[in-house]
Amino acid sequence: MKILKYLFIFTMIAVSTLSCKKGLDPITAISPRADEDKPEILISNPSEGKIVKSGDEVMTITFELVASDDIELKSIVMQLDGAEIGSLTSFRDYRRADVAYEYAGLADGEHVFSVTVTDLTGKTESKSVNFKKITVPPYTPLEGEVFYMAFEDEFLDYFTGSYATTVGTPGFAEGKVGQAYSGATDAYLTFPTTDMIKTSEISAAFWMKVNATPDRAGILTLSPEDTENAGYPTIQNKRTSGFRFFREGNATEQRFKLNVGLGGTNESWNDGGTTDPTTGEWVHFAFTVSGDTNIIYINGEVARESAMLNAIDWTGCDVLTIMSGVPRFTEWSHFSDLSLIDELHIFNRVLTPAEVQSFYAIE
Questions:
Q1: Final residue before a domain boundary, out of 79, 108, 135
Q2: Are 356 and 300 in contact (CB under 8 A)?
Q3: Residue 31 in domain
Q4: Whether residues 175 and 298 fall in one domain
Q5: Which value, to the nearest 10 degrees, does the dihedral of the CA atoms of residues 87, 89, 93, 97 take?
Q6: In this prediction, what percent of the chain has a pLDDT beyond 70?
Q7: In Å, how far from its chain's centre is CA 173?
Q8: Has residue 17 been placed in a domain?
Q9: What are the residues facing 357 on neighbouring strands?
Q10: Residue 217, pLDDT above cutoff 90
Q11: Do 308 and 349 belong to one domain?
């Protein structure tokens, strides 16, 4: 019986094998296609025109690039200012290489980073980017300063050394000093507010080149969540604490306003002043909030002063939004600002009129 059992199993395996072979499609050999295209290169760091900053006169930089070919890569050669600094001839993926090459010894000055890629048939492609390295000493905050952004090719708060959470695709443009934040639709920055709300006073000073489209926008907003709003979380407008600095108007006149939450049902409104965005000029703005007064300055001069029943309330204020009212000041359509903003300073004290003038006097 055991022999008959094994014969039966063997017969079933043989039948199964024949069935499987019968079901296979024949394999047709395909000749490799001709290598027709040149390699491609994408350099992601540094970007063209980038300013690389460091506290050290000589620093280490990581060059980042992607090289690809339609058939197979042979070599990648990297140069800095005409001198070879590294090469690759072995690749895990023979058609694509993601390269992060660390180079120690980058000194101050103008530089050119170049990459040449060669494929197996000898076709080559080269790309270069120009960038600059500068030594920046550690930032020394001004008295009472708790936040400072220069917008020099990065969304960095120099006070804390932390980077913004970036929403959308804001960019950079020529600023009042160096580069500036350049607004985009549905774009803005956010920061936690741990160091900003330790006192009952606050001030901000900054430059703007105003774009009147859209005709209203949030600029600096620090509000609590409006969870009781029927449209929450998309629609929010709780003004019982924090502050909202924003603009409204038309193509030829924009009014800059400040709202301050005082706790309970109390709030303070300051209708500020106006500017003409058609001039295309940089305008300096500042506002201060003390225990009983808030003031808006435009180009170093008082635009409007507003009394307050009591000091600002910070309940629930944990996120600062820059260049939008989103996410917590949206009910009146104060969305992203497409303007330029530069040299943003925030203080946990009241700036004096003379100090505001000194910011405006900086060219």
A1: 135
A2: yes
A3: no
A4: yes
A5: 20
A6: 91
A7: 13
A8: no
A9: none
A10: yes
A11: yes
Contact between residue 286 and residue 162 where contact means Cβ atoms under 8 Å apart: no
Q: Where are the alpha helices (DSSP H) in the chain?
A: 2-23, 353-361
CA dist 15 and 21 (Å) reads 10
In a domain, 18, yes or no: no
Same domain, 115 and 157: no
User: Does one domain contain both 195 and 215?
Assistant: yes
116: containing domain: 40-135
CATH code, domain with 93: 2.60.40.10
Tens digit of each residue's pLDDT (9 = 90 or more) over 19-73: 444 444 455 554 556 778 899 999 999 999 888 888 899 999 999 999 999 999 9
* Residue 193 one-letter amino acid: T
Tokens of 175: 């600023």
pTM above 0.90, yes or no: no
* Same domain? 124 vs 208: no
Instruction: Let me know whether 64 and 129 are in one domain.
Output: yes
- Report the relative pairing of strands 96-107 and 293-298 from DSSP bridges: unpaired
Kindly state whether residues 116 and 184 are assigned to the same domain: no
Residue 242 lies in a domain: yes
Mean pLDDT of the chain: 91
CA angle 82, 83, 87 (to 5 degrees): 115
By the 10 Å C-beta count (0-12 exposed, 13-18 middle, 19+ buried), 328 is classed as buried
Q: Residues 252, 188, 197, 298: what is their CA dihedral angle, to the nearest 10 degrees?
A: -20
Structure tokens at 117: 């890629």
Q: Cis ω on the peptide bond leading into residue 26 (within 30° of 0)?
A: no
Strands 124-135 and 51-54 turn out to be: parallel
Task: CATH number of the domain at 205, please.
Answer: 2.60.120.200
Question: Read out DSSP for 51-105?
Answer: EEEESSSEEEEEEEEEEE-SS-EEEEEEEETTEEEEEE---SSTTEEEEEEEEEE
What is residue 330's three-state secondary structure?
coil
Q: Report how far residue 118's alpha carbon sits from residue 40's, in angstroms, rounded to the nearest whole number.
A: 10
Query: Using omega within 30 degrees of 0 as the cis cutoff, is the peptide bond preceding 170 cis?
Result: no
> Is residue 79 domain-shared with residue 127, that is, in the same domain?
yes
> How many domains does one find in the chain?
2
